[in-house]
Specification:
It contains 8 helices and 14 strands. The protein is α+β, with helices and mostly antiparallel strands. The strands form 4 sheets. A 5-stranded antiparallel sheet has the order 4-3-7-6-5. Strands 9-11-12-14-13 form a 5-stranded mixed sheet. It folds into 3 domains: about 55-155, no CATH class; about 210-305, Orthogonal Bundle (Helix Hairpins); about 305-449, Heat Shock Protein 90. It starts with 5 loop residues before the first helix and ends with a strand. It is rod-shaped, with a radius of gyration of 50 Å. It is about 50% helix and about 20% strand.
C-alpha cells in the first residue's frame, strides 16, 4: 500500500486511537485494581483488629496477651510481611506477633480517637513499607481501665506484587484485543472504501468503452460524486458531438471544392496537360484521405460502449460494395469465417477497419483477396491477404517498426492503413503487416470476441 493511500491513513488513525484508548483503559484498570485490593486488604486488617480485640486477656500484672492464635499462619512466620502489635499506651510496652521477631511497629506519635480506625504507612522490619491499620480501645482489666493501641500491618510489596501480576495479565489481554480491533478496523476501512473502488472500476469501464456512465446506486456519501462525474461525461458528450458535427460540416464543405478540382483535372487531361492533371488529382486525393482520417479520429475519441457485431454480415456487405467498383469486379474474394462469429466493437469502427484493409488489398491485388477470421480464447484474429506485389522486406520493417507513421513511410500503403491503425489503437490493439502465402501483403489484427 502506498504512503499516500487513504486506506493507510484511515487504518493508522484507527490503530492509534485503539492503542491510545486501550492504554488509557489499561492504566485505569490497574489503578482500580490497586484501589480494590487495598480496600480488600484494609477490610481484612480491620477483621484482624476485631479478632485481636475480642481475644485480649490480661495477666496478673495487667499486661495484655492474646487468648489463642489468629488463623493466618503468617503471623507466626518471622518477617512474613503480616504483623500485629498491642501497645500499652501508659507503659509503652508492646505485645506483638511472632512475625515481628525482635522488632516492633513504630506507630505515629498521635492520639487518635477511641474506637476510630486510623490508616498509616510506616517503615517496618527490613525497611519494608507497611500499610498499617490501628485502633485505640479502652479495656477493663478488673483493676481499672487500660488504653491499648491495637495495630495490624501488611507489607505493601505484597500489594505491589498482586498489582504487577494483574497489570501483566491485563496487558496481554489488551494487546490481543488491540490486534482484534485493528483487524476489525482494517475490515471496516476496506468495506467503507469499497464504493470508491466501485467508482474506480466504473471509470475504467468508461475509459475502455465498456459503459458510458457511472452507476449511481452507491452509498449516499458517494452518490453526489458519481452524479457529478456523469454530468461531466454528459457535457463532454455534447462537446464531442458538437466537435464531430463541426468536423463533418467542414469535411462536407471541402467535398465540393475537391470534386471541382478533380473535374478541373479531367478537363486538363482532355486538353493534353497530363502532368498538371495528375498533380491535381494526387493533391485532391491526399486531401480527401487526410479529411477521412481526421473524421475517423474525431469519431473514435468519443467514449461509447462497444457492440457485439457479427463479422460475417459486416464483411459480406463490404465485399458486395467493392465488387461494384471497377477494380473490385475483377477480384475473386475468398472468406473463411465461422457462422455467428462476433466481436465487441462499434459497427462504424469495424467497417472502417475492414473497409480500408479490403480497399488496400483490392487496389494492389492481381486476382485474389482472402479474408480469414478465427477465435482464440477471448480474441478474434483477422487476416486480410492479397496476391499483389506486396511490400519489400526492408520497406516492411520500416512500416512496422515502432514510432513510424503508416502514412509517412513512403512505401505506398496510403492513409487507409493509418486510419486502421488509429481505430485499432483506440481498442488497445495494433495492426501488423507481413508477407502473404498468396504472394502479396498480409494485414493482421485482433479484436475482443
Amino acid at each position: 500500500m502506498k504512503a499516500r493511500s487513504l486506506r493507510v491513513r484511515l487504518l493508522l488513525v484507527a490503530s492509534a486511537a485503539i492503542l491510545l484508548a486501550l492504554a488509557i483503559a489499561g492504566i485505569g484498570l490497574v489503578q482500580l485494581f490497586e484501589r480494590h485490593v487495598e480496600r480488600r486488604i484494609g477490610s481484612e486488617l480491620d477483621t484482624y483488629l476485631n479478632q485481636i480485640a475480642s481475644r485480649i486477656i490480661f495477666n496478673a500484672d495487667q499486661t495484655p496477651r492474646l487468648d489463642g492464635k489468629l488463623a493466618d499462619p503468617r503471623f507466626d512466620q518471622v518477617y512474613s510481611g503480616l504483623y500485629w502489635q498491642i501497645t500499652d499506651e501508659k507503659s509503652a510496652t508492646h505485645t506483638r506477633s511472632r512475625s515481628l521477631w525482635d522488632t516492633h511497629l513504630d506507630l505515629p506519635v498521635d492520639t487518635p480517637s477511641i474506637g476510630t480506625i486510623h490508616i498509616h504507612d510506616i517503615s517496618g522490619p527490613q525497611n519494608a513499607n507497611l500499610l498499617i491499620h490501628e485502633r485505640r480501645l479502652v479495656f477493663d482489666t478488673g483493676k481499672g481501665d487500660k488504653i491499648l493501641r491495637l495495630a495490624v500491618a501488611i507489607d505493601r510489596a505484597d500489594i505491589a506484587a498482586m498489582s504487577t501480576d494483574f497489570a501483566t495479565d491485563v496487558t496481554i489481554s489488551l494487546l490481543i484485543l488491540a490486534v482484534i480491533l485493528i483487524l476489525a478496523a482494517w475490515i471496516q476501512v476496506n468495506v467503507g472504501l469499497k464504493p470508491l473502488k466501485q467508482i474506480r472500476h466504473g471509470l475504467t469501464d468508461i475509459r475502455e468503452g465498456k459503459s458510458n456512465r457511472l452507476d449511481v446506486h452507491v452509498p449516499s456519501e458517494i452518490a453526489p460524486l458519481a452524479e457529478e462525474v456523469n454530468d461531466l461525461l454528459a457535457a463532454q458528450d455534447k462537446t464531442m458531438q458538437r466537435a464531430r458535427d463541426r468536423a463533418a460540416d467542414l469535411a462536407h464543405g471541402f467535398k465540393t471544392p475537391l470534386t471541382a478540382l478533380l473535374g478541373d483535372a479531367k478537363r486538363l487531361r482532355d486538353k493534353g496537360d497530363h502532368e498538371t492533371a495528375n498533380e491535381i488529382e494526387r493533391t485532391a486525393t491526399l486531401m480527401r484521405g487526410h479529411i477521412d482520417r481526421e473524421l475517423t479520429r474525431s469519431r473514435i475519441r468519443n467514449i461509447r460502449p462497444p457492440e457485439a457485431i457479427e463479422v460475417g454480415t459486416a464483411l459480406q456487405g463490404l465485399i458486395g460494395t467493392l465488387k461494384r467498383t471497377p477494380q473490385g469486379e475483377t477480384i475473386k474474394f475468398t472468406t473463411n469465417i465461422k457462422s455467428g462469429l462476433a466481436v465487441s466493437i462499434e459497427s462504424d469502427d469495424l467497417n472502417e477497419i475492414l473497409g480500408n484493409l479490403l480497399e488496400n488489398a483490392v487496389r494492389h491485388a492481381n486476382k485474389k483477396v482472402r479474408v480469414h477470421a478465427i477465435q482464440h480464447n477471448s480474441l478474434v484474429r483477422f487476416d486480410v491477404e492479397d496476391d499483389g506485389p506486396g511490400i519489400a522486406e526492408a520497406q516492411l520493417k520500416a512500416v512496422t517498426s515502432r514510432g513510424n507513421r503508416l502514412d509517412s513511410s513512403g512505401v505506398g500503403t496510403g492513409l487507409g492503413l493509418a486510419i486502421v491503425s488509429d481505430v485499432l489503437d483506440h481498442y488497445g490493439q495494433k495492426l501488423t503487416l507481413g508477407r502473404s502465402n498468396l504472394g502479396g501483403l498480409k494485414a493482421s489484427f485482433e479484436l475482443t470476441g
